[in-house]
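User: Can you help me understand a structure? I only have the sequence.
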Amino acid sequence: MTLSSPIPAHRLGAIRPLGVVIAALVALALVTLALVAMASPAAAAPANIVPANIAPGKVISDMAEVLISNSGARTLAALNEFEYSSSAKNLANLTLQMNELAVHIALMLGVVARDLQSAWVNTDLAHQRAIFAGLSQVGVPYRLNALIPGKAFDCSGLTKFAWGVAGVEIARGSKTQFDGATKISAKDAQPGDLLWRPGHIAIYLGVPGAVLQAPYGGRSVEVQLMNERIASWMRYADPTI
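Assistant: Let's start by predicting it. Here is the structure, written out as C-alpha cells:
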C-alpha cells in the first residue's frame, strides 16, 4: 500500500521542516504492517460471533459502521492535534488514523484504500475536517428535519453539521445548500464537496461514486457506492468558494 503525508500540497503558508518530514517517513514505515494486517482475510471477524437468529450481512454491516464512525472521530481528533502542534509524533498519528479510516471504508465499499487516502491528502483543511466530521456520524439514524449529532440527521442536517465543524456555515435544505455553493465539475470535485440531486444531498468521499449520506427513513448515516444511473444524476458543488 502506498502511503503519503496527510498535509494538502496546496495549503497556504504550509512549510514543513525537513526534520519533520524525515521523522514522518520513518513512522510511516512502521504503520504499513498494521494496515496490511487490517486488510488481510486473517483480520476478519470470526464467523461464530454472529448469533444464529441474525443475518450475518446485517451484523457485518453494523460492525463496519462502528469501525468507520470510531475511526472518523479519531482521525478528526488527530487532525485537530496536528493543527495545534505540527510535531512529527502528531503527523505520524494523523497519518495512521487517516490510513486506517481509508482501509475501513475501502473494505466496506470495495474501492482502493490508497485512492481514498490520496484524495484526502490532496484536499484543503476545511474539506478534510468536513469529511472526518461527517464520517464520525456513520450509523446515526435518519430522521426528517433532524440535526442532532450522535442521535439523528436528515440529509441536509448531516452536510450542515459536517461543514459546520469545518467552520463553514451552510443553510438547511438540500436545494438551498446546492444553490448557495459554487457549482463544479466532477473532475474538479474534492472530498467533502456537496453532491446534489433533486430531493437529496450527500458528501463526496473522493473516489468516483463513493458518498457519505443520510439516505431516508429506516436507514442511518452511511457510506455508499452509487450505481452509474444514480451517479449520472448527481451535481457537484463546493461550499467554500
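Now, to help you interpret it: Residues 1-5, 7-57 have pLDDT under 50 and may be disordered. The beta strands are 147-148, 152-153, 182-184, 194-197, 200-204, 210-213, 222-225, 235-238. Let me know which part you'd like to focus on.
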